Amino acid sequence: MEVTQNRVQRSERGTSEIRAGAALLIAGAGLVALSLVLPHPSGGNETALITVAAGMALAGLLCSLFVARIPKGAIHAILAITVGLTGLLIYESGIAAGQYGTIFVWSTLIAAYFFPRRIAAAHFAWLLLVYGVVLLFIPSTVGYSPLTRWLFTAVSLGVVMMLTTEIVARRARADERARRFFELSRDMLCTANMDGYFVELNDAWSRQLGYSVEELRSIPFVERVHRDDRERTEAEAASLFEGDETTSFENRYLAKDGTWHWLRWSSQLSPDESLIYARATDVTELKQVEDEREELLGKVREMAIHDQLTGLPNRRALEEQLPRELARARRSQEPLCVAIIDIDHFKAYNDTHGHLAGDEVLRECARAWDGALRGEDTIVRFGGEEFLVLLPQTSPEEAAEVVERLRERTPMEQTCSAGLACWDSVESADDLLGRADAALYLAKAGGRDQLAMAGVPA
Fold first, then answer.
1. Which of 65, 192, 368, 450 is in the most buried spot, having the most CB atoms within 10 Å?
2. What is the pTM (predicted TM-score) of this model?
3. Strands across the sheet with 416-422, in order?
4. Of the candidates 127, 161, 183, which is a domain's last residue?
5. Are 265 and 365 within one domain?
6. pLDDT tens-digit readout, 170-179
7. Is there a single domain that holds both residue 140 and residue 240?
8. Counting beta carbons within 10 angstroms of the beta carbon of residue 33, is it exposed (0 to 12), middle (13 to 18) or buried (19 or more)?
């Protein structure tokens, strides 16, 4: 990916070089036209000046129109020809005073800005050679000897070149450090334009998602965002365009192998608002860990509120549900009944047949009773061989019918006793359970295998 990125950068740089050369030719022609319009020393060959300027303008225009088709190395020929034509302009003007020397300055700046020092020095040497030859044949050097004027020019342009190359070198070193950080970062760093296309991406994108740079840059970013996250992503982008920063936005992005990766974004607009600077971190594994943790917590919670033997809710679940049922009954002014069911002589059965057989009785009773209840009713394993049934929106008479139905469904030739209590709209949950337990005691004391109803509390 780094090779491809560098190739793209070199191509873009080559295009900029050609454009700079074209601009130099057109600006030089414009400078000639301006010098001929404004007052200027007489004696020069104006026809030759106009002809040379027209040729420069035409060459610059052609370079501008066909910049994409011109080889990158052609900029060297463009600069060399421009310097040569500038020497011809100075010669045809008849005087080395000149405004045409400005083109030399521009040529020097372009060479120093775009090329390494050795190549820029070669262009500079060509410029000094051209100028030195011109000075030997030009009629006027405005009071200076040709050597003096050449030395002045060499020193001044040399200073310009050295300062420019030093500035460019420092910037190149800074850019190299930034590029190395950009490429080596484990985070997925990128820039994007205002149309939603990636402009620059580091290697982390290919490592994480499998795409090449060209593939990532070929379509708008949002096209590979999960459709369920696309609306949120577009809203976040709109907020970003309004000046807000993205600090911890997450969405799913399609990888080349067809999997979805969770990306966590931070981004902001560039100072000129032409680009978006963004950093994405692949948090897919973290999301999986979080999902697994939530699933595990859910299982732990289920285990905490369910009886492992029967699968029914346990006493802890009752402690959460009963207060809610009491609050609902208080709001709706509807009855609420509670029944406690106890399997008769269960201890003796355990002692005779063993605990495994006793466990099977508990499971079968739980299954039979749970299946016989209405949808709004709840049965809870209260402890040992005792089960509790919550009967919301149920009158005492209806509750008694439900409990008798449960007793009739008791499997494995077992019998059970039950105590039933109905809430009086005032008492606490503990008092209600206490009255149901007292009723169960009466059922057992009365010979078992029966239902006893608690009286109205005093």
1. 192
2. 0.47
3. 378-383, 386-392, 336-343, 416-422, 451-453
4. 183
5. no
6. 887 766 666 6
7. no
8. middle
